[in-house]
């Protein structure tokens, strides 16, 4: 998992409870207390899973509450670390489409071929025309709820309205999670898209 995710969670903990909370969660997750996550480095999904579970146990937050907190913090981290991506995006649709390219770009810089291939296989976006994309997300952590929350947070940042339809889910036995994302309004102006028409799922391979 690309380190910007762990860095965002660390920032969530620091904002919510300062260094004491960060240390408590890291200890609970069995992560070295002096660990500093780099955004350009790949980390084990299993470790991130332990950190998320430990955060819920220590803070008492439910999964949806944690996803919402994480997503709002993620937007702030991106604004600070990658301000050019925000300034280059006129709306959340452009940012979501660009996010796929950012993911691929960071993944291409991983040291080993296995890391590069794993990162590339995790996330794929298909263009279905204006205001409509299909997303394939494949991760052993099954964080489809978190991805949906991230898209909603990006939409809220720009004042857009999105409809996210779950096409399939690993939790239900699918090989990968699939979403249809439609922008119903951008900056308060309707796009003409109707929510949830029949949509082909993104390819499995």
Strand content: 15-25%
Helix content: 40-55%
C-alpha termini separation:
20 Å
In the CATH scheme, the class of the largest domain would be: Alpha Beta
User: What is the arithmetic mean of pLDDT?
Assistant: 87
- Strand and helix order: HHHHHHEEHEEE
Q: In total, how many domains does the architecture comprise?
A: 2
Structure overview:
The protein is α+β, with helices and mostly antiparallel strands and 205 residues long. It has 2 domains: 1-81, H-NOX domain (Alpha-Beta Complex); 91-205, Alpha-Beta Complex (H-NOX domain), CATH 3.90.1520. Helices cover 52% and strands 15% of the residues. The protein has 7 helices and 5 strands. The protein has helices at residues 4-29, 45-59, 63-81, 83-87, 92-108, 113-122, 144-158; strands at residues 123-127, 132-137, 161-168, 177-186, 189-190. Strands 1, 2, 3, 4 and 5 form a 5-stranded antiparallel sheet that branches. A hairpin with a 4-residue loop joins β1 and β2. α1 crosses α2 (45-59) and α5 (92-108) packs antiparallel against α6.
